[in-house]
Amino acid sequence: MIFDVTYDESKTKQNQRNNILNQAFRLFIEKGIQNATLQDIAEACSIQRRTVYLYYKNKEDVALELVRNVILEFKRVSVSSKIPDYLDTGYARIEYMLYTYLEYLLNNEDVVLFTVQADYFFHKSYGETNAGNAFISVYQEHGQIFQNELQRGIKDGSIKKQYSQNLEAVFFVSLSAVMALAQRFLFREEIIRMESGHDRKSISLLVEVILSGLKA
C-alpha cells in the first residue's frame, strides 16, 4: 500500500510527510511498531530525526496516522465493492461479500501484516483513540450490511433460519475468522507450510466452510 495523504501544506511538506508515512509503514511491518524508532524512520527517509518532529510528535503519532489511513482504505474498498444487483439471494450476496473480502486481504499482504502489528501495539489503548473509534465505526457499518444480507437470505430461504437470532455474532465470527487466518498465514506462512504442509489456500477453504454452514 502506498500512502498519499493530503494536508493543507506546501507540496514539498506533503511529499515529505508521505515519505515518512511510507517508510514507517515498511519499518513497522518489518520490525514491529514497538521495535522501530523515530531514528530508524528518519534514516530510512534520509532526513534528520528533528525533521520528523516537524510532522509527528512521536512514533505513536505516526502509527495512528497509518491506522487512520488503513481504515479509510477499508472504507474505500467497501464502497467500491457494491454487491451486484443480479445476485438476488441473501446467500449469493453473502458469498460475494466474503470472497471479495478474502481477495482484498490476499492482494494486500502489507495491509494485513500492518494490522497484526497495530493490533499488538495498540491493544491496551483500543477504543481510547480516534483511530480505535474509527475502527468501531467501520465494524458497525460493515456489520449492518452483512446482517441485512443474512436477514434477506433467511427470508428467501437461502440461509438457515437457525441464525436469525444471532446475526451480529455470525458476522463477527465469519469476518474475524477470515481475518485471523489471513494474518496467521501471511505472518508465518513458511513456518506453517513446514509444520503442516498447509498454505494460504486454506483461507479459501475456511470461507467455503463458513458458507456451507450458512446455506439452507
UniProtKB/TrEMBL annotation:
Keywords: DNA-binding. Residues 14-74 form the HTH tetR-type domain. Residues 37-56 bind DNA. InterPro entries: Homeodomain-like_sf (IPR009057), HTH-type_Tx_Regulator (IPR050624), HTH_TetR (IPR001647), Tet_transcr_reg_TetR-rel_C_sf (IPR036271). PROSITE patterns: HTH_TETR_2. SUPFAM superfamilies: Homeodomain-like (SSF46689), Tetracyclin repressor-like, C-terminal domain (SSF48498). The keyword DNA-binding applies. Pfam families: TetR_N. This is HTH tetR-type domain-containing protein.
